[in-house]
Amino acid sequence: MARNAVQFQKGLSEAEFDRLYGTEELCRAVVIKLRWPDGFSCPVCGGTAHSIHTARGLFQCTRCRRQTSPTAGTIFAATKLPLRTWFRAIYHMTQSKQGISSIELGRRLGVRQTTAWMLKHKLQQAMMERDGRKRLKGRVEIDDAVLGGQRSGGKRGRGAPGKTPFVAAVETTEDGKPVRLKLRRVAGFTGQAISRFALHSLDPACNVVSDGLACFHRVADAGCAHEAIVTGGGAEAARHPVFRWVNTTLGNIKSAIVGTYRAISSKHAPRYLAEFEYRYNRRYDLASMIPRLGYAVIHAPPMPYRLLKLAEIHG
User: Fold this and answer.
1) Span of the secretion signal (predicted)?
2) Closest Cα to residue 57, out of 31, 18, 34?
3) What is the pLDDT of residue 152?
4) Among 125, 163, 248, 298, which is least packed, fewest CB within 10 Å?
5) Quick one: pLDDT at residue 12?
């Protein structure tokens, strides 16, 4: 049997990572190249002529005299950590299929868990910003799911206390090969929530296949064609071939969450889902994920720590 091309790809070794990103100078050069691929451009006046303030590492525009840091206005803004620490965090978050907890990330980076948590969530934020506006096209498998362990007593299943509901959708080719993934937390499995998801996440030309859950008919609000297949419940329904890829993906995500994080806060669930989504959508080239996430970080707005901790993210 042929090997799984994704599972057995080479990726980027630690030795190769050190060659490309192992020093502060190398990482700074990468940041500058990602921010100004065609050379420096002043964010105020657009001027390209400049000098470099060597001691402070700032670019000074010759025309308006504005001084600019390569990290200003990015996720890296005002960081006190070396850029090589950031890139090492990017390496661990992109090269691990199951993800990495902030505790383990802190051990590997040699920083406190709270610092690793901040790094991780800022990078997750950049992932979420990068993929947020992209829509799935063509044939799409969709299913409902929840995050959160079982509680004794009380309601079970959908709507149970302590659960975080989310929607998973997988774009496939006509012959059933998975292409891209969308994971979005929703307020609940209602027609209004699914309508909102479809309008933001699905191309109007999509052909959506779902189970018999009534709310999924609202994908039609986005102009999508919809086919509902009543599967019943239990393990047999989860193995239905029509939903092969969305069910496989959900199984992998839940296994990773249990194995890596055990549980995640509902408030921050969209970032964790965005991390799984980002890796899945770029799974065919692990090595390129580092510069691609670097680009996303450079072009994402700053996210102060207080907002990471306090802000409620709306799916």
Assistant:
1) none
2) 31
3) 47
4) 248
5) 87
**Where does residue 101 rank: exposed (0-12), middle (13-18), buried (19+ CB within 10 A)?**
middle
pLDDT digits (tens, 9 = 90+) for 44-65: 999 999 999 888 889 999 999 9
**For residues 186-196, b (16+ Cβ closer than 10 Å) or e, as one string?**
beebeeebbbb
Q: Which CATH number fits domain 139-149+159-267: 3.30.420.10, 3.40.50.1100, 3.30.70.100, 3.30.479.20?
A: 3.30.420.10
DSSP per-residue string spanning 49-75: -EEEETTTTEEEETTT--EE-TTTTST
Q: DSSP of the chain, one letter per residue?
A: -PPPTTTT-----HHHHHHHHSSHHHHHHHHHHHH-TTS---TTT----EEEETTTTEEEETTT--EE-TTTTSTTTT--S-HHHHHHHHHHHHH-TT---HHHHHHHHTS-HHHHHHHHHHHHHHHHHHHTT--B-SEEEEEEEEES---SSS--STT-TT-EEEEEEEEE-TTS-EEEEEEEE-SSSSHHHHHHHHHHHB-TT-EEEE-S-GGGGGGGGGT-EEEE----SSHHHHT-GGGHHHHHHHHHHHHHIIIIIS---TTTHHHHHHHHHHHHHTTT-TTTHHHHHHHHHHTSPP--HHHHHHPPPP-
- Residue 164 banded pLDDT, cuts 50, 70, 90: very high
pTM above 0.85, yes or no: yes
Tokens (6 digits) for 79: 């960081």
pLDDT digits (tens, 9 = 90+) for 88-108: 999 999 998 889 999 999 999
